[in-house]
Amino acid sequence: EAALVALSFSGAIGLTFLMLGCALEDYGVYWPLFVLIFHVISPIPHFIAKRATYDSDATSSACRELAYFFTTGIVVSAFGFPVILARVSVIKWGACGLVLAGNAVIFLTIQGFFLVFGRGDDFSWEQW
Fold this sequence. Notes:
flat, transmembrane helix, 5 helices, 70% helix, mainly alpha, 0% strand
């Protein structure tokens, strides 16, 4: 239960950084909110690979490695998107820094969720 509270708190901190990068008076541009799409789709390859390789006893499989590859591409894209927006002067570099900080916190929160709640073989979404 404490882990869930800590993950919720860190997710809120990450979203606060993201919103500050968009809503502060000096910045005022909401294009960086599109990184939320990357946050939502980043766990999807893992879910697909876990479902596809559920019966497999292998420590590594091509499906799981492909899921890692796609997840890495999604995460790198989430960090690259605000840098590109700042480079073409759509957002300011300060907003880019806040969005990158929010990305780091949110992705660490997502990873923490999988480390805390995804360990056991008897894992079910209904346990919390």
